[in-house]
Amino acid sequence: MDIQKITTNNFKIEKNIITFTDSMIQISNISQVSISPVPKKRFNLWSIVLMACGLFLAQTYGELEYLGLGILGVGVGYIIFYFYEYYDGVNDKYLNIYLNSGKVYSMICRNTNFMTQVMEVMEYCINNHSAQIVQIDFQNCKMFNSPIIVGDENEVR
User: Fold this and answer.
1) The pTM is what?
2) CATH of the domain at 128
3) CA-to-CA distance for 152 and 30, rounded, in angstroms?
C-alpha cells in the first residue's frame, strides 16, 4: 500500500474531482474513506543507553567528563523531544482516502467531528455528482457550499 500524506489547509470538491493545492483525485476512484489515529513514533531505547553511558563517563575525572556530559545531554534531549512529540499529537487523526489503485492519501486534523462531517459530504458527493463546488477548510475546520446543511449557512464549525 502506497501511503502519501497531503499537506493542505483546504481542498475543493467539484463534480467528480477533489482538488488539493498540488494534486487532484477523481471521486470515482475512491474505494474507502476512514478516520484513524496518527501512529505514534516508537521510543528509541538507545537514548537510555546513551544516558547511562553519559552518566558513567560524567562521573570520571579528566577528559572523559565533558564527553560524558555531552552524551548524557543528547540522551536527555531525545527523551524530552520524544515526549513533546508524543503529547503534542495525541489528539491528531488522519482522514484516509483509499483509492482503487491501492494508494492512500492521508490528511491530518485534530477535530474528529469536523472530519466526520467531511466524510458525510464526501459520501454525498460520491453518491450524487452535484454541480456545486464544496470548499473544505481544514485549518479553520469550516466547510463552505456544503450540500448537506450543517450549522449556520452551510458552515461547519
Assistant:
1) 0.60
2) 2.30.29
3) 29
Cα–Cα distance, 117 to 29 (Å, whole number): 21
* pLDDT tens-digit map of 37-86: 876 777 777 777 777 877 777 777 677 777 777 878 888 888 888 777 66
Q: Are residues 130 and 69 in the same domain?
A: no
Residue 31 and residue 65 in one domain:
no
Backbone dihedral angles phi then psi of residue 104, each to the nearest 5 degrees: -130, 130
Residues 97 and 112 in one domain: yes
Report the domain count for the chain. Answer: 2
Sign of CA dihedral 120, 126, 129, 132: positive
Cα of first residue to Cα of last residue in the chain, in angstroms, is 33
- With a CB cutoff of 8 Å and minimum separation 6, the contacts of 19 are 11, 12, 13
Q: 130 and 98, same structural domain?
A: yes
Same domain for 119 and 131?
Answer: yes
Rounded distance, CA 47 to CA 18, Å?
A: 43
Instruction: Give the chain's largest Cα–Cα span.
Output: 76
Which H or E run includes 103?
strand 103-109
The CA–CA distances, whole Å, from 130 to 16, 32, 145, 147 equal 8, 20, 11, 8
- In which domain, by residue range, is 7 found? 2-38+90-154
